[in-house]
Amino acid sequence: MSNMIVTLATLGPLGFLPASGTFGSVVGFFCAFFIYHYSWYPIFVTAMLVAAFFIIRAALPHFTEEDPSAIIFDEFVGA
Prior knowledge:
Blueprint: H1 2-10, H2 20-35, H3 41-59, H4 73-77
């Protein structure tokens, strides 16, 4: 379970690349670009924001830094 949480929080290998926050934002932008036409888009964004809170909170104990740059799920969501 903890491995899955870390994988979600880092968006897999993207979180460990240089400029990982930029990659997270770009992936989030393209995902939003392709789904913003649907009527459920606001519900999806709200659910992702709530999920980001819990995913990042669960992943933080697995890192030694206070604000690890590898965690890019917040950039993906756009927070």
